[in-house]
Amino acid sequence: GAVVSQHPSRVICKSGTSVKIECRSLDFQATTMFWYRQFPKQSLMLMATSNEGSKATYEQGVEKDKFLINHASLTLSTLTVTSAHPEDSSFYICSATGLASSYEQYFGPGTRLTVT
Amino acid sequence: GIQVEQSPPDLILQEGANSTLRCNFSDSVNNLQWFHQNPWGQLINLFYIPSGTKQNGRLSATTVATERYSLLYISSSQTTDSGVYFCAVSSGAGSYQLTFGKGTKLSVIP
């Protein structure tokens, strides 16, 4: 149980275009989903927290107009990188929580974004 | 915010050896998780252990919340154990945001 999927697993896009990444909880309802970013050989950094049906809360230094997050249902959150630039190239990972009486988070397999 | 320190940063083991990874944190926690990140980037949940001791096969973990540290034990290591091990915590009532340590890179050689 507690499986989280992400799509796509890998994407290459041209500078200036937008890319959408989907995060789905497959076997539970995720009241809260999180988006992280990981640069090579570094740790994960939280970008934003999203609760179903409400606006995402962004961490300091994360541009909300650049990284659009939508959490329209209890099983789906999307991250759209708008007007992507090469410096946005990174590994993006989502996680979800929602199981009763637990703070445990379950992570998706990640999406590797390369902007050329 | 809460600080998370992992040690050692790098560890090289001969196959079959045992190891202990440490995670220190600076405040009380409501969540502590250990993960193994495989070469493809997938984070594998190892333990959800805000306190106490758990075991799963060759792996076990202990969190001493009052002393603000957690230990991950790997016994009889195998080459497939190689990768980066992360400790992550959240702190504060109703707070789910995880703060990650910098990780321990484990290399198990045959």
What does this structure look like?
The complex is a heterodimer of chains A (116) and B (110). Chain A has 116 residues and is mainly β. Chain A has strands at residues 4-7, 10-13, 19-25, 32-38, 44-51, 57-58, 67-73, 76-81, 90-97, 106-107, 111-115. Chain A contains no helices and eleven strands. The model of chain A has no long low-confidence stretch (mean pLDDT 93). Chain B is 0% helix and 56% strand.
Fold topology:
The complex is a heterodimer of chains A (116) and B (110).
Chain A: E1 4-7, E2 10-13, E3 19-25, E4 32-38, E5 44-51, E6 57-58, E7 67-73, E8 76-81, E9 90-97, E10 106-107, E11 111-115
Parallel strand pairs in A: 2-11
Antiparallel strand pairs in A: 1-3, 3-8, 4-5, 4-9, 5-6, 7-8, 9-10, 9-11
Chain B: E1 4-7, E2 10-14, E3 19-25, E4 31-37, E5 43-48, E6 52-56, E7 59-64, E8 69-74, E9 83-90, E10 99-100, E11 104-109
Parallel strand pairs in B: 2-11
Antiparallel strand pairs in B: 1-3, 3-8, 4-5, 4-9, 6-7, 7-8, 9-10, 9-11
The gist of it:
The complex is a heterodimer of chains A (116) and B (110). The radius of gyration of chain A is 13 Å and the shape is globular.
Number of strands of chain B: 11
Order of helices and strands of chain B: EEEEEEEEEEE
Helices of chain B, by number, come to: 0
The assembly state of the depicted protein chains is heterodimer
Count of helical segments of chain A?
0
Please report the distance between the alpha carbons of the first and last residues of chain A: 37 Å
Taking all Cα atoms into account, the compactness measure Rg of chain A is 13 Å
Low-pLDDT parts of chain A are none
Low-confidence stretches of chain B: none
Q: Which term fits the overall shape of chain B?
A: globular
Helix content of chain A: under 10%
Computed structural class of chain B:
mainly beta
What is the arithmetic mean of pLDDT of chain B? 95
Major β-sheet annotation of chain A: 7 strands, mixed
Largest sheet of chain B at a glance?
6 strands, mixed
The sequence of SSEs of chain A as H and E is EEEEEEEEEEE
Binned, the helix content of chain B reads under 10%
